[in-house]
Write a structure and sequence with these properties.
Length: 403
């Protein structure tokens, strides 16, 4: 399947994303369009996305709390590649391809804690937590073990470029993306004043949704649907007090000031220390292309991560972080549950709509949409980023593949 789909990658990308489509996406907003149906329904396009988006940019792979102690391991899949998150003896988080260098067996199939080494289930090849090969039993014959050969350094686990940003582990599989600090500079600047280190994990909500991953991100950053889909959120901040999302390169963002806090949004839990008066009554959220979003209220952070599973299937996680003891202390249990319930209820209101968008893209007459000249800059920009990134990365990877 991969061989057929990805042969002549640049040419395949341009079949889906021709010059004429890019021109339409870049028109003035009231005349522009978003991506065509195939970008949300085609298996071939999905596989091209895995190769040219998710393997070539910074994407969220996991959460630091999932590997909190030395020897903790978490197997995951990113862009169709099995990866393994490990915290080593020095408490450094490392990421490797989750495969033995011998015959290619998957090394770890389930989360595990406080292991001393990674041991392949097939032939018991053993790797240190930093990826070094330590032992190959019976490698040279019965009872002739390889425990310290000069060539072992060539057969260690395959490392993946990874960095921890606050509470989150990001990877760049092809190792050629710009530095993460550069990738997240705009976000870091906007988060000034929020002591993110003061927050701790309080719970994660997981949703399996019959929709394309892009719909989830486009919906997250688009406030136009709030009055129609989210009655409680609209009561909290009505449309007259909202504005269209702004775009800064690969980051789309929005914010609002609310007049009074409510349970789940700023009421009943400790706030981040030393917030300004404006920040203490503000909600602000971001979509960072291509893999995650983040929303911050005075009392919590929500990390919104979408993992593509298939053209019409995604897994969405919302990890919630509260300030200090609010994340775990019994006295804050009610307030903590209110935040989790708020996010669960809000997302439940979206799921049916996201799945409706997926079903609607079977209609051949739909061609990318008629966009609001006020509200739809963020969805249009997301489409532009998909098109421009895939075209650029496929040309860089396959410079001679043009037909």
């Amino acid at each position: 399947m991969w061989v057929h789909t990805l042969r002549n990658g640049q040419a395949r990308v341009r079949e889906f994303l021709p010059d004429a489509l890019v021109e339409r996406i870049n028109r003035p907003l009231g005349e522009a369009t978003c991506l065509p149906n195939a970008a949300y329904t085609s298996q071939a396009f999905f596989e091209l996305e895995q190769r040219y988006l998710f393997r070539r940019t910074w994407v969220v792979a996991g959460y630091a709390h999932e590997v909190s102690e030395p020897g903790d391991m978490m197997p995951i899949d990113v862009a169709g590649i099995p990866l393994l998150l490990i915290r080593d003896e020095k408490k450094q988080i490392r990421v490797f391809q989750n495969v033995c260098r011998h015959r290619g067996a998957r090394l770890v199939d389930a989360p595990c804690s406080r292991k001393q080494a990674v041991v392949c289930p097939y032939h018991s090849w053993t790797y240190a937590l930093d990826g070094r090969l330590q032992r190959r039993p019976h490698f040279f014959g019965g009872d002739k073990h390889d425990v310290a050969s000069d060539e072992q350094h060539q057969a260690g686990l395959i490392p993946v470029r990874a960095e921890v940003w606050h509470h989150w582990i990001l990877v760049n599989i092809d190792a050629n993306a710009p530095p993460l600090t550069e990738h997240l500079k705009f976000l870091d600047d906007k988060l000034e004043g929020y002591d993110v280190a003061a927050a701790a994990h309080a719970g994660t909500l997981t949703f399996d949704i019959d929709t394309n991953w892009k719909f989830a991100h486009e919906n997250f950053i688009e406030p136009y649907h709030v009055f129609s889909a989210h009655p409680r959120l609209h009561d909290f901040v009505p449309m007259r007090d909202r504005h269209a999302s702004d775009v800064e390169g690969h980051v789309m963002w929005n914010d609002y000031q609310f007049k009074s806090a409510e349970e789940g949004r700023g009421l009943g839990l400790p706030h981040f220390p030393a917030l300004s008066t404006e920040q203490s009554m503000r909600g602000i959220w971001f979509t960072v292309f291509p893999s995650f979003g983040i929303e911050i209220y005075p009392d919590h952070i929500a990390m919104f991560h979408v993992n593509p599973v298939a053209p019409a299937r995604s897994q969405e996680k919302i990890a919630v972080y509260l300030v200090g003891e609010a994340a775990t202390a019994t006295q804050y249990e009610s307030g903590r549950q209110s935040v989790l319930d708020m996010w669960r209820d809000l997302n439940a209101e979206d799921i049916g709509l996201l799945e409706s968008l997926q079903r609607g893209r079977q209609a051949p007459g739909y061609d990318g949409g008629v966009l609001s000249p006020y509200w739809d800059e963020a969805p249009r920009s997301f489409s532009r980023l998909v098109a421009e990134t895939m075209r650029a990365e496929s040309a860089r990877a396959d410079p001679n593949s043009t037909e």
